[in-house]
Structure formats: structure tokens, C-alpha cells
Amino acid sequence: TIKDGSHILLSNVEAKSTENDGISMSNVTDSVIEYFYVHSRRTGSGIHGDAIEIWGGGNNTVRFSRFAWNGQQIFWGGDRVHGRWDIYGNVFYDAPSAGKGLHPQSGNPIVGPIYVYNNTFNNFNIAMDLGSNTTGKVMNNIFYNIGSNPGFGSTEHDYNWFEEGLSSGGESNAQFGGHPFLSEVYNDYRLTSPTNSGKKDLGAPYDIDFCSSTRGADGVWDRGAFEFGGTSVCDVSAPGGGGDGSADDGGGSSGSNSPS
User: Fold this and answer.
1) What is the pLDDT of residues 57-110, one digit of tens each?
2) Which tops the pLDDT comparison, 107 or 19?
3) Among residues 152, 225, 233, which one has the least CA distance to residue 191?
4) In this structure, how many other beta carbons lie within 10 angstroms of the beta carbon of residue 12?
5) Under a CB-based contact definition with an 8 Å cutoff, are residues 214 and 236 in contact?
């Protein structure tokens, strides 16, 4: 649990096989979670842990992380006002039955603005389920193998990539297509070919991908967590292990933090 903290850096941490939350944050501000790998959610009666559970705070960042968690992956709790969150360059996957990638509590708390750029969502029940009180921008993401249309709340959304059959919710620059990844079996979500160029004037810090490649260097700012043709030096694949079970709007608290 991280409570009433600020300027915290949580980097290169793995959380697994917990029945509580991977990280629980209460009134945390001005902090960064990066290179975080959370997976293998434990299941059973009364178990409802979230990968990251948030209670208030803001001006925080989640980047370059892997979520293989069959439950709520980033969850904003009710009865709080949640400030700015930057969520970019992450891979959210392996949540086919109970999973919600980004989800405020059903009471529809105030969340945002959130800036959700260049993430990859794969193998989900519901990848995004934002409420009407969630504001911000959702752009340059990939939604593939998703059971339900993304719910964008009151955010501005465009330039996202959708598998055929999903609705973009009226995006002018949406892209639709078939299988885009090198290997779902090995959770390698690099691209087999370039996407149409996404929104490419986002600037720093959003111009670096999961493997530290510069976005748009070839003239195309690809959609998703990985820039096509970028470096293959980083460890792009990781085990699965989303777990199983049902998600709800509660949660315990468990986690770790590394102060900067």
C-alpha cells in the first residue's frame, strides 16, 4: 500500500499470485509506476484484487508496464476525486473473463483528465469502461480480441486501432484490421507491419515506446505500445497468467513501493 505519498518512483517491480491488489494507492501524487509486471491473479470466494487500485490523488504516471491480470487492471475507487493520470506505452492483456483494463468504480467518480496514449489491449472481456465523469484523451491505442466495444466516457478519443467488428464510437481517424501482433502465444505484441500513422504531435514524453525506440522516426507514429521496426533489444515477451475469477468494485490492499 502507498498512502499519502508524493514523488514516488516504482520501477522494475513484479507482483504476482496475490489475492489482494498488486498496488493500492491512496492520495498519492506526482509519482511514477514504470516497468511494472503484474500477473497471475489468485482467485476464489471473496477475492477481488485489482492490479492497481487508486483512491484519490493525481498527477501520476503508469508507463512501459505489463498487466496480465484477469480482473480490473487499473481501477479508480468511488467517493473520491481523482486527478490527472498519464497512461502510456503499456501492454494490457490476458483478461478474457473478468477483465477490465481501465475502469472507475460503478458509482462514477470524477476521474481526470487522463491521457491514455499508445497502449495495447489484447484478450479482454472489457478493455475500457470509463464513466461519464472521466475526462481526458484516449489516442493511438490498439484494441484487439476484445469482447465488448470500449467505453470512452467523456474523453476525447481518436486515432485508435480496432479489430474488425468493434465500434470506434465515431472516431474520424480510426483504423480497423486483423491480427497485428508478432506472437500472442509468446505475448510478443510488436507489430507485424506499420499501422496508419496515429496522432503524431503528442511530443515528449509520449514519443518513446515500450523498448525506448523513438516514435515517428520513420515518418509514421505507430499505434499501440510498440513502434514498428524499433529495437528488439528489450525483453518484449513475458509469461501469461491472468488468473481467473470475477471482478467487483471492492478490493483489499497489498503492494510495494520504491521511493525516489
Assistant:
1) 999 999 999 998 777 889 999 889 999 999 999 999 988 877 789 999 989 999
2) 107
3) 225
4) 10
5) no
Strand partners of residue 103: 75
What percent of the chain is helix, strand and coil (3-state, nearest 5)? 0, 45, 55
The mean pLDDT value for 43-69 works out to: 86
Cell (9 digits) for 247? 471482478
Q: Which residue in this structure is represented by grid cell 476525447?
A: 156
Please state the separation of Cα 146 from the chain's center in Å: 14
217: number of Cβ within 10 Å: 12
Work out the angle at residue 117's Cα, subtended by the Cα atoms of residues 240 and 112, and round it to the nearest 5 degrees. Answer: 105
Measured CA to CA in angstroms, residue 225 lies from 22, 66, 124, 186, 231 at distances of 22, 10, 16, 16, 13
Cα–Cα distance, 228 to 246 (Å, whole number): 35
Amino acid identity of 55? W
Q: Please give the pLDDT value at position 62.
A: 98
